[in-house]
Structure formats: structure tokens, C-alpha cells
């Protein structure tokens, strides 16, 4: 069993259909498991999301995982931040 | 703005969020609120989607979500904002195949060596292919001469479905009226009702004489229409409306209570039920139903977005 490791992702941007689908699909493709997810469309217009991902089964290093997510975020018009939760103290 | 509430319960694994949200995105449904978390190995997600701009009929979207739900393994519920807002106050459950993990009539027929014939009739009746009253009479006839002592033994080892105790006790704590309604027989239904402490039990009465079944049956639960009538009468008596009811079942005789209740749940259902139910449980664990009914803070948060 690989040791659990976690990544936190936050995303903010203009709301439209397909944002969670886009982000969660790329996470799934990297074998990340979403363990917690909160999202709201503020004023039905501003997309705000936070996500906790278990990356125990991801084969790639954190920096690469982060880059792929940031790129996806940009493509979706979102400001995405990716944190190594181990450094936050999880 | 018209909205739906989707609740997904699954064994935790990568891809559940992606699957469900992609199905919504594909049809241009916009998610306005999501709350998801995994606890132990179970993942649960509740989301509110705005469907005012979807590019298909709602029923096509629902079909797609149900297919996704089957892949997540445990279950999915799709409610309109209007039905979700209604607090649920009554639950009605079918017995055979829902609360009891067996077709009781078939098991009794086994004792008489007529299992094969009984099974064929049960199957046809559950799929809605033959008249329920005829099916009931025929199968009761097959039990003629069965000693009551044998039924007592069967009662002792009744296979109650996993999660049934938890579901009923939790809902009773929450003030729900609990109803067991079955086209199966009173001797078994009353035992299940007693053990799980249902408030109401409706079933069909097998006639016995000199310690043996006579093969006759007195019926009050005779198919989908009579189940619905019985539900209406209990609800009326309790001062509860149908949209405050939750119905759980698997067969054709549950079809109308599932369709007309606020939340209709197919429990490992036959196809006729699967097509009509707004929620599906695809695993033999009734606790999933609790996730669909929801409670507390999350439910309030979700309602706040409707």
C-alpha cells in the first residue's frame, strides 16, 4: 500500500457548465482520488471550489501533477492554486 | 430557474466525481453547489444543478445520470428542487427483495417441493407480466398442507437485508412513520414488522386450519394500485401528503408508490421499476436510502441553493 499523500486544489473564475467535470476528469486521469469537494456558484456567476485529492496512487511527482492541473485550469478560464497538503501539515 | 438535486453514493475510487459531473456538463446543466466527502470507504456527493439551459429533455439527462450511478456501484438519486424541498415524514418499504433478501413465497414453496413453479410465477408477477391476484392465489395453493411449525422455523432464519435495522431506527428517531407493505404473507411480514418495529404492516393473510395451511389466501395487497391506495390511506390518517413520502421497492407492484411518492427509490429493481424510479440503490444495503433522504446541516445548505 502506498502511503497516503494529499493535494489541495482551489479554483476561482467565471462560472459556466463543465468546470468541475473538466477538473475532476483530469484528476481521475492521473489516478487522483477526490476525498473532499466543496463548490458554489456565488451570485450564480462566480465559481469557487476547493478540493482535497488523495494522490497515493498517482505515479507522477507533485510538481508535474500541479502543472497539469494549472494548465487545465487556464484552459477553463480559472485561477487555480495547487498545494502539497503535506507542507500545510496534513 | 429550475434545478435538480443529485445525490451519489459510491465506493470510494477515482473517477466518480468526473463521471457524474461530465454527464451534467455534456447536457449543459450547470452545477451551482457541490458538497462531497468520503468517510471510511464510502464516497458521498450532493449537488445542485441548474437545468434551465439543458440541451436535451430532462428524462434523457436523468437516464444518463442513472447509468453513471450504476457504474459508481451503490446508488444515485435525482430529485427536482421542488420535491427535495419537501421534508419527508413517511417511508414505505416493500418486503421480499427489499427488506428481506429473498422471495419469501418461493422459499416457502421450496419446502413443498414446488419451488420451480412458484419462482416462475413470482418472476412474471414482479415484472408485471401477469395479474397479481392470480399469481398470489396460485402460489398460495402450492403451499396447501404446509405445517405452521415449518414456517416458524423459517421465521427464525429470515435473511433481513443489511442496513434495514439502521434505516428504520434512524428514521423513527427522526419522527418518520414507517410502513411495511408486501404482497407476501402475513406470518412472515408480521415477524419482520415486529423485529424492525414498523408502525404499520400490510400483507396478505394465509389461512391455516389444524396447524396447516389450507392453500387459501385473503388478500388486501394485490398489485400496484392497491399498494398505492393503502399508502394513501395511511398518509391521510397521519396527516401526511404523498410528496412527503419515501417509497422503496423492487418489483412491478411497487411501481405506483414509487412513481407517486415524493422520493421513489428502486432497490436493486426489476427493469420496469428502474425506468420509473427517481433514485436507484444498486447494492444490497438499505443504509444508502438514508443518504438519499439526507438530514441536518448539508440538507439545509442544499435547500438554501434551490
Low-pLDDT runs of 5+ residues of chain A are none
Largest interface: A-B, 26 and 29 residues
Task: Give the second-level CATH assignment, the architecture of the largest domain in chain B.
Answer: 3-Layer(aba) Sandwich
- Class from helix and strand fractions of chain B: alpha/beta
Describe the model.
The complex is a heterodimer of chains A (90) and B (306). In chain A, helix 1 (19-29) runs antiparallel to helix 2 (62-75). Chain A has helices at residues 19-29, 62-75, 85-88, and strands at residues 6-14, 33-42, 46-54, 78-84. Chain A has 90 residues and is α+β, with helices and mostly antiparallel strands. A 4-stranded antiparallel beta sheet of chain A has the order 2-3-1-4. Chain A is globular and about 40 Å long. The model of chain A has no long low-confidence stretch (mean pLDDT 93). The longest helix of chain A is centred in the C-terminal third of the chain and has 14 residues, at 62-75. Chain B is of the alpha/beta class. Chain B folds into 2 domains: 1-85 and 287-306, Alpha-Beta Plaits; 92-230, 3-Layer(aba) Sandwich (Rossmann fold). Chain B has 14 helices and 11 strands. An 11-stranded mixed beta sheet of chain B has the order 2-3-1-4-11-10-9-5-6-7-8, with helices on both faces. In chain B, a hairpin with a 2-residue loop joins strand 2 and strand 3 (42-50). In chain B, helix 4 packs antiparallel against helix 5 and helix 5 (115-126) packs antiparallel against helix 6. The mean pLDDT of chain B is 92. The A-B interface holds A 15-22, 24-25, 27-28, 31-41, 44, 49, 57 and B 1, 12-18, 21-22, 24-25, 28-38, 43, 45, 47, 50, 53, 305.
